[in-house]
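Lecture 7 notes: from sequence to structure.
We start with the chain below.
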Amino acid sequence: MGERDSVSARELDTPVTASGGRLVSTAGTLYLYRFDVPTDSPLLEDLPVTVIPPEDIEPTEGCVVGRLDHAVLIQTFDSLGQSVNSLTIVPDATAFFDTASKRLAEMAHKSQSYTLGPT
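Predicted structure tokens for the same chain:
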């Protein structure tokens, strides 16, 4: 819970301005986009995000699935088109830590149901 409570202090929910967005691939109703972001942006893998495109396009929910030095890969549930010049990505680190906490508690409670394989 300490990690979740320190989200604001560590600025993990700070909106990030992204540019150079392009559609990388599509799988059914999922869309994978690559966006250029500052290298110090707080976008970590598995982090849920809200993507706010410019103009009249509705925001969509997504998840960070990969990170490169100056780029991020985000899977969205709605199409943003083939390319997006600029947009805002709003991370939801609080939801990430809440979900992780619940999953770890469930694993501890039902440890016989989980096998991690050789480590």
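Points to note: Strands lie at 16-27, 30-36, 48-52, 60-67, 71-76, 83-91. Confidence is low (pLDDT under 50) at residues 1-9.
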